């Protein structure tokens, strides 16, 4: 009887102690949660509501799916969608593959000056996207640095109209983005590789696996979770592309065309234009932004599925 | 066998050197560029010129560079401090006091990472107007403090924090806030350093939101200055280069001083 009573009181004490701890849990997250509710969750929900409304001036009325239906006939929107996808499909795989190879090489303990190389390749990450775009705009001008070098090396007969032609403008953007982000992704892979036992490579080498085989059969499978993570982060980043296309095109935010023939018009730039440049139509802009959200959700889902990872 | 190995290694070195040059060269070029005239920059001159002082004088004559840098520093430092406090505490709360409800909240927060800033632009802009934060640094700082990515980063790192230490401190009678501030924070120094770099540089480099909120020249940041210089009808390329160098320098300094921690912090976060 006494024993049971004691057990009961200990249980009660534990319960109330757990409740206290639980309250501390809320206390610790409260500051961030408050900010997130105000500056993230509220706008997300409100934006979703807005996407079903039409606002001309101060009059705002509910119009159901009309905004979304209108999108299918909006040539500007379709162009922005196409541009964003072209950049995504070409840029992200090239960059991530490059980052993987670099991380794999820099993980090899036989390579000298590894820290030196790593720092140098990571360095572009410290420049802002705006600075990157402006730098590349100058380097890739018609009689600029890149054309001069390529002509001097006799790799070209005619200068390439980098930023004057819709096709080459996208290439320039992709080169700039790859320059800026490869080192960043490489650091994630390098950190991930630290957790792969180095013996694995050594015993594979003893078994006669060459570097390429080691890369495909050890590095890639072992890094799978981080590869998914970086793929998703890069996909999200590319779908939100704004700073680079704006600053690569002449005229910046006020230009009538983003890149030659609107070749650098991305979804985010289009939303910005809808809100701040054209006759503001908040509802329609919100609908465009929710298209990005849906696409991101679908792509993230596919990326998880393709890799077949449970976590 | 050995020949093959040698071949692989030389390829690896050639590849590394090429990527290294491609990565670092633009930095050399921007430093050279700020000593050259606009015409020389755009023609791709690769040697130092004598326009450094002229460029600096022209830049400071037409813009209040001190004020612009001050604005940038104010915004980035405030955001960084706010982010470190808010997100590390939240991550600690989510990880150490695990509870089902909070776990659900955490998952929703992570999901929101998929939503682009552009999707929030309209309501957030209205909110900032209503809170009378338009054209003030706080309009940029407040929405940026609760960074989901850094919250995630902190939580991943806290996963490898030895829980026994917290238990032991509790038995010794230390309060929960005390445990966090005087045991956990000092032990997670490298994570904090890495998060500080990420937060500071992200804020320093941010463009879209400051572009919307900071509407007068008085409030301009250095990143906005680069953009407006570069989109002028007759861009002064040498001056643009100088601005880029000035804008990039703090990031490089922050990175090199905290680099050791950065690699440690990243490794700690990824272990899980």
Automatic annotation (TrEMBL), chain A:
Major place of residence: membrane
GO cellular component, one term: plasma membrane
Family: Belongs to the binding-protein-dependent transport system permease family.
Protein name as catalogued: Lactose/L-arabinose transport system permease protein
A UniProt-annotated Pfam family: BPD_transp_1
Highest taxon listed in the record's lineage: Bacteria
Gene3D superfamilies on file: MetI-like
Membrane-crossing segments per the record: 21-45, 85-103, 115-140, 160-179, 215-237, 257-275, 282-304
GO biological process: transmembrane transport
Domain ABC transmembrane type-1: from-to ranges: 81-303
From TrEMBL, chain B:
Membrane topology field: Multi-pass membrane protein
TM region positions: 12-31, 75-94, 106-128, 140-158, 237-258
SUPFAM superfamilies assigned to the protein according to its UniProt record, in alphabetical order: MetI-like (SSF161098)
Transmembrane helix found in the keyword field: yes
Family (UniProt): Belongs to the binding-protein-dependent transport system permease family.
PANTHER family xref list: ABC TRANSPORTER PERMEASE PROTEIN MG189-RELATED-RELATED, ARABINOOLIGOSACCHARIDES TRANSPORT SYSTEM PERMEASE PROTEIN ARAQ
Protein's recorded name: Lactose/L-arabinose transport system permease protein
Naturally occurring in which organism (per UniProt): Caldanaerobacter subterraneus
The organism's taxonomic lineage, starting at the top: Bacteria, Bacillati, Bacillota, Clostridia, Thermoanaerobacterales
């Amino acid at each position: 009887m006494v024993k049971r009573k004691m057990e009961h009181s200990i249980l009660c004490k534990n319960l109330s102690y757990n409740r206290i701890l639980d309250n501390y849990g809320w206390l610790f997250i409260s500051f961030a949660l408050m900010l997130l509710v105000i500056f993230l969750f509220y706008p997300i929900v409100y934006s979703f509501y807005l996407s079903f409304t039409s606002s001309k001036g101060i009059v705002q009325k509910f119009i159901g799916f009309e905004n979304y239906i209108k999108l299918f006939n909006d040539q500007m929107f379709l162009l922005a969608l196409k541009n964003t996808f072209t950049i995504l499909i070409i840029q992200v795989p090239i960059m991530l593959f490059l980052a993987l190879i670099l991380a794999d090489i820099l993980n090899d303990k036989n390579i000298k000056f590894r820290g030196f190389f790593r720092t140098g390749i990571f360095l572009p990450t410290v420049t802002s996207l705006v600075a990157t775009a402006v730098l590349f705009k100058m380097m890739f001008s018609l009689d600029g640095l890149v054309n001069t070098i390529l002509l001097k090396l006799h790799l070209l007969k005619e200068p390439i109209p980098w930023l004057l032609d819709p096709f080459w403008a996208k290439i320039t953007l992709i080169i700039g983005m790859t320059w800026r982000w490869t080192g960043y992704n490489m650091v994630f892979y390098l950190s991930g590789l630290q957790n792969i036992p180095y013996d694995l490579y050594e015993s594979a080498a003893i078994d006669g696996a060459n570097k390429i085989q080691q890369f495909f059969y050890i590095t890639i499978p072992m890094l799978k979770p981080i590869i998914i993570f970086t793929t998703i982060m890069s996909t999200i980043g590319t779908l939100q592309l704004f700073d680079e296309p704006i600053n690569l095109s002449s005229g910046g935010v006020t230009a009538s065309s983003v890149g030659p023939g609107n070749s650098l018009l991305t979804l985010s730039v289009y939303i910005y234009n809808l809100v701040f440049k054209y006759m503001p139509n908040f509802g329609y802009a919100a609908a465009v932004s929710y298209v990005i959200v849906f696409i991101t959700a679908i792509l993230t889902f596919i990326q998880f599925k393709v890799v077949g990872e449970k976590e | 066998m050995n020949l093959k190995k040698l071949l692989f290694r030389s390829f690896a070195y050639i590849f590394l050197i090429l990527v290294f040059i491609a990565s670092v060269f633009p930095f050399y070029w921007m430093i050279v560029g700020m000593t050259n005239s606009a015409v020389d920059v755009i023609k791709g001159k690769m040697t130092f010129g004598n326009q450094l002082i002229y460029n600096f004088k022209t830049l400071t004559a037409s813009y209040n560079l001190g004020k612009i840098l001050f604005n940038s520093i104010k915004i980035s430092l405030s955001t960084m401090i706010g982010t470190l406090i808010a997100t590390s505490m939240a991550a600690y709360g989510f990880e150490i006091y695990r509870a089902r409800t909070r776990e659900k909240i955490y998952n929703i927060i992570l999901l929101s990472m998929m939503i682009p800033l552009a999707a929030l632009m309209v309501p957030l802009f209205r909110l900032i107007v209503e809170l009378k934060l338009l054209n003030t640094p706080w309009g940029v700082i407040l929405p940026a403090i609760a960074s989901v990515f850094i919250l995630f980063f902190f939580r991943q790192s806290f996963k490898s924090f030895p829980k026994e230490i917290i238990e032991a401190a509790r038995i010794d009678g230390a309060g929960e806030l005390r445990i966090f501030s005087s045991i956990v924070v000092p032990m997670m120094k490298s994570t904090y350093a890495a998060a500080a770099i990420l937060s500071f540089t992200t804020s320093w480099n941010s463009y879209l939101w400051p572009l919307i909120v900071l509407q007068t020249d008085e409030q301009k940041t250095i990143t906005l200055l680069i953009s407006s210089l570069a989109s002028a009808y007759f861009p002064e390329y040498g001056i643009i280069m100088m601005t880029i160098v000035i804008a990039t320098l703090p990031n490089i300094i922050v990175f090199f001083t905290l680099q050791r921690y950065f690699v440690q912090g990243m490794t700690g976060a990824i272990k899980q």
